[in-house]
Every structure is written in C-alpha cells, then in structure tokens.
Amino acid sequence: MQTVTFENNKQVLEYAASNADQILVLFSTYVEIEMIDAKIPGNVIVASSFAQTYAGARKERGFTGFVIDKDECEIVPIADLPILSRYDLKKAYDKVKDNPNAFMYLIADGLSGQEDMILTSLYFMRPDFKMIGGSAGDTKHDETLIYYGSHRVKHLCIFVDCKNGRNSSRKIFMCRPERRCS
After folding, report:
1. 163, 157, 25: which is closest to 90 by C-alpha?
2. What is the pLDDT of residue 162?
3. Segment 42-54 mean pLDDT
C-alpha cells in the first residue's frame, strides 16, 4: 500500500490504465469527480470530500489517496440499507479474518447518517479485527459521490489481506503538484 497524489483526472486515468493490477482509492472534490465519473476505470474507487490536503497545504483541485495490489483486496459495495449487504460482507471478511495483518477500510456516505447501520451490519466481525476509514462527504453539494469504477455506490468496504505485514513491495510513481507525471 502506497500513498499517491495526482494533479488532475488525466493523470488518474493514465495511471489506472498502466497499473491494472492495482486498485486506486482516491479522494477529491465533488467537481473533480463529476468531470471524471463517466470515464472511471474498474480499478479506481473515488469519493468526494470538501478539499484535499497534501504536504500541509489545502487544495480544492486534484486527487489524493492510496493504491493496493488488486490480488490482496476484496471490495464490497454496501447497499443503501446496509444489512442487505451482510452476506457479501461476511464472505469477504471470512477470506481475511485469520490474517492478523488484515483490515477493513470503510468509505461511507457521511451525509446519509447511516454509519451506525453499517457498523451494525458488521456484527459477525471479531472485536479485534482492524477497521479504518470512515465518512466521506461534501456539504457544499449536499451529497457524497462514491464510485467503484463507473458505478456509483452508497458506501463500500475494502477488505485488505496484507501479506507479511506489508501490502506491496513494489514502488509506484507518485505525482506531486510541483512535478508533472509522465
């Protein structure tokens, strides 16, 4: 797992196309996501937030997030009524639950007020299983955009099966605002 930043949606699309073996989990503003939504490849997850922070500076343009090797994660979109997704969530959890380095990353629509219902739907998880992530949202637009590829979803979980405490030994190319991606 490595962090990434991109200045614009063109860089996201180029990186995703040349790294089909990775899942990109990105955050950006509502406006940035609207400009890319029809073109989002299947290996990209993107969620809206009010602004991005990189290197201590707050910006309203660009994308920031992380990448995971595709073969080390299971992605489960969560239905508007989260309990309806419990079988898919449990199936993904069962694949990783015995790995002490595994964890679940949650991206929830923070404006829906359903975080408690999502957590209740995860009743089958052991108390010591690691969960990170949380609510995404953009109060400026009164809705949250969350996409898994070109499909808009309400919420989603990513179950990550870290091998040997690390997700990836590969180095990745990172784009920074002061440098152009090539």
Report:
1. 157
2. 86
3. 81
Angle (CA) 161-165-168 rounded to 5° is 70
Q: Is the pLDDT of residue 57 over 80?
A: no
Helix (H) or strand (E) holding 48: strand 44-48
β-pairing verdict for 103-109 and 130-136: parallel
Please report, for residues 88, 121, 123, the alpha-carbon distance to residue 23 in angstroms, rounded to integers and kept in the order given.
Answer: 19, 25, 27
* Half-sphere exposure (Cβ direction) of 158: Cα atoms closer than 13 Å: 25
Q: Tokens 């299983």 appear where?
A: 129
Question: What's the rounded mean pLDDT across residues 114-134?
Answer: 91
Identity of the amino acid at 1:
M
Can you read off the two tokens belonging to residue 108? 């929830």
Q: Could you give the CA distance from residue 6 to residue 40 in angstroms, rounded to a whole number?
A: 14
For residues 103 and 162, is the Cβ–Cβ distance under 8 A? yes
How far the first Cα of the chain sits from its last, in Å, is 21
> Which of 136, 5, 173, 167 minimizes the C-alpha distance to 72?
167
Other Cβ atoms closer than 10 A to 129: 17
Helix (H) or strand (E) holding 15: helix 9-18
pTM for the model: 0.83
Contact 90, 173 (CB under 8 A): no
